[in-house]
Please model this.
Amino acid sequence: MRSKQSSMEHSKEVAFVAVRRVRRQFDEPFKRTVVEQVERLGRSQSSVARSYELDPKMLRRWLLEYGSPQRIRGMGGSDPITGAVVAESVAMMEMRKRLRDVEEENDILKKALGVVSRRPR
Model:
């Protein structure tokens, strides 16, 4: 009886062993790429952090370290060139989404035409 108890205690101890997470390290080009997605492409910080599985606080630090000086001073939207680039990027993203939607609609209509045009046997 004692051996069963000790084996159960051992299994409980094993179950509570914590798994250590490996600390990830990122090189500077990667950090700059992530910062660029926020600044130039106009993506939100939270969506970029989620897509790269980053902590939002880390992304904010990278924005301070590698971001444009205007953004750091809080004047990111006042620069007409940067504003134009962001507006153009947003417009391009919207057009690409619209193109995907139209292509999907076109595929659906092609399939429907094939179903309707079949001759009954």
